[in-house]
Amino acid sequence: MSIEKMTTTELLSLNKFNVDEEEAHIILDKNICAKCDDKPCLYVCPALLYKLDKDGNISFDYAGCLECGTCRLVCKAKGITKWVYPRGTFGVSFRYG
Amino acid sequence: MSETEKFDAIIIGAGPAGIACAYTLAKAGKEVLVIERADNPGGKNLTGGRLYTYALEMLEEGLSEEAALERKVTHEQIMILSEGRGTTIDYFDSGFSPYEGPPQSYTVLRARFDEWLAGKAEEVGANIVCGIRVDDVIEEAGKIKGIIAGDDEIYSDIVIAADGVNSFIAQRAGLIPDIPASSVGVGVKEIIQLDTSVIEERFHLQDGEGAARMILGCTEGLHGGGFLYTNIDTISLGLVLMPEEVAAAGKPVAELFQEFKNHPAIYPLIAGGSTVEYGAHLVSEDGYHGLPKKLYREGLLLVGDAAGFVINSGYSIRGIDLAILSGIAAANGICASSDIAKAGPQYIKEMEKLNLLPTLKAASGYRDLLNIPRIYSNYPYLANDFLGNLFTVNGEVAAPMKKSLKALLKKHNISFWQLFKDGLRGYRAL
Q1: Residue B367: closest CA among B298, B314, B420
Q2: CA 20 to 30 Å from B405, out of B113, B132, B263, B288?
Q3: What gap in Å lies between CA B64 and CA B61, rounded to an integer?
Q4: pLDDT of res. B98
Q5: Which residues of chain B are within 8 Å of residue A46 when distances are taken between CB atoms?
Q6: Among B353, B356, B355, B350, residue whose Cα is nearest residue B334
Q7: d(Cα B12, Cα B22) in Å, to the nearest integer?
Q8: What is the CATH number of the domain that holds B242?
Q9: For the domain that residue B304 is a member of, what is the CATH number?
Q10: Cα first-last separation, chain A
Q11: Does position B24 have pLDDT exceeding 90, yes or no?
């Protein structure tokens, strides 16, 4: 595979994740997100986990989260109602770091 | 663990700050428990990065010789990019070791390094448990008395928050407010695997030598920069950007990074390699200015990234060494205080002794310098254009250099007055 231009989906597939299927560590209130004009989360998430669906609403999947915390800091509208680190052993495991 | 068991110290986070603290305390005979949320120490940790060895040597002489490090940095490089162009300054010193002892710095990968360092702490008696997330601290009568993880409560004389840049523990304990987005950069990085011989050829390295490169002009004018570190058989290539600026510009960090990677002066360095990991992390950008007003309260000390100990001078970034120093200082502060209530003030004194706070203070001017927006576009572009003119031979009579410089200043919207003001600002900052 050429590494020239990689999508985040390709990049994330290289990482080791142990997704916590029972407990989401980030939860959004999409009603609040719908009223947010700027939607900074679309741009700052290095994994591009925040996306706009065809109706212009935010869709989000916490699997693939690199746990950097940037989205929480730029979320002025407070649509992110919960942001905690994944429970112990869950989430990303860097093999290089 | 019995309910009555109580530790001398509980350390939250098995990064370099937490482990350095645990190591020093355990060696002094203290009962120490380190709690790490990753499966292994280092599993959640990310650096650019490099490690300055003096800090490891301070922890224990001779430690850096056996440490899980990558390449000794013999090439210090600064690269200036603009569209299709690049200038690289390469300072080479074969025995870059300004003090008696090991080479000054090594490139490093944190998953390997942190796990190795944690192993050393275990050897001297520290207890390290992984796979547990600390949720909160126990507070009684205004003092921190221990930690809460899930349904478990564990007590200790003192708690050390070594839980990183996004320290929820420091926030919970009321020592820092929530982090303002303007005070941190978001760093993204690919680890690209290449043959050892290919890396050594491309970067002109002898066996075991390495390069550390800071890159300007690769952020489409946004506050930030790139970095490249050569590891043994991988390259760490990354970009750090200020999140609020990225959001205002409306272009994803991930996209800016891929474009940077494909710059014609960057891509040949990694061509033919395969990416093996993609990571992201926050990095404190405010240095001394961003330190919490209080780095402790009774029963709790902040160390490493949780305390905001990072120096970004533009030409180098330091964090791991400062983290180690702060961990040692915290341990020394605890050991020197027969009354644990005095450990906090003593920790500050120990940081002064280890030159940690003075070092941060001395570097406090860099932030002003790096806040000059022209550093990220106008100046790097100007520099490349100027060199481009200098090396242009096209059969025409070349304009005098001062005339060409004047034209370039105009092209890049820099007045002499602006140049003078920025120069003065830079001079004052340094």
Answers
A1: B314
A2: B263
A3: 8
A4: 62
A5: 186, 188, 253-254, 257, 278, 280
A6: B350
A7: 10
A8: 3.30.9.90
A9: 3.50.50.60
A10: 22
A11: yes
User: Is the CB of B112 less than 8 angstroms away from the CB of A96?
Assistant: yes
User: Which of chain B's residues have a Cβ under 8 Å away from the Cβ of A20?
Assistant: none
> What is the C-alpha R_g of chain B?
23
Cross-strand bridge partners of residue B301 = B160, B296
ipTM above 0.90, yes or no: yes
CB B48 within 8 A of CB B23: no
Q: Which of B109, B178, B246 has its CB closest to that of A97? A: B109
Contact B69, B106 (CB under 8 A): yes
Backbone angles phi, psi at B87, to 5 degrees: -125, 130
- For residue B3, the model assigns a pLDDT of 52
**Chain B residues with CB inside 8 Å of A4's CB?**
261-262, 267
Model pTM score: 0.96
Beta partners for residue B152, in sequence order: B149
* Mutation for B interface: A43, A75, A83, most B CBs within 10 A: A43
Tokens in use for B422?
A: 């920025």
The third-level CATH classification (topology) of the domain covering A21-86 is: Alpha-Beta Plaits (3.30.70)
For residues B252-274, give the mean pLDDT. 98
Dihedral sign for Cα atoms in the order B132, B56, B183, B245: negative
How far separated are the first and last CA of chain B, in Å rounded? Answer: 53
Q: Say if CB B359 and CB B311 are below 8 A apart.
A: yes
Classify residue B117: in a domain, yes or no.
yes
Helix, strand, coil percentages in chain A from 3-state DSSP, rounded to 5: 20, 20, 60
Going by C-alpha positions, the residue among B211, B238, B219, B242 that lies closest to residue B227 is B238
How many structural domains does chain B have? 3
**Would the pLDDT of B4 be above 70?**
no
Contact B252 A69 (CB under 8 A): no
One-letter amino acid of A87: R
State how far the Cα of B171 lies from the Cα of B241, in Å rounded to an integer.
24
A40 CB within 8 Å of a chain B CB: yes
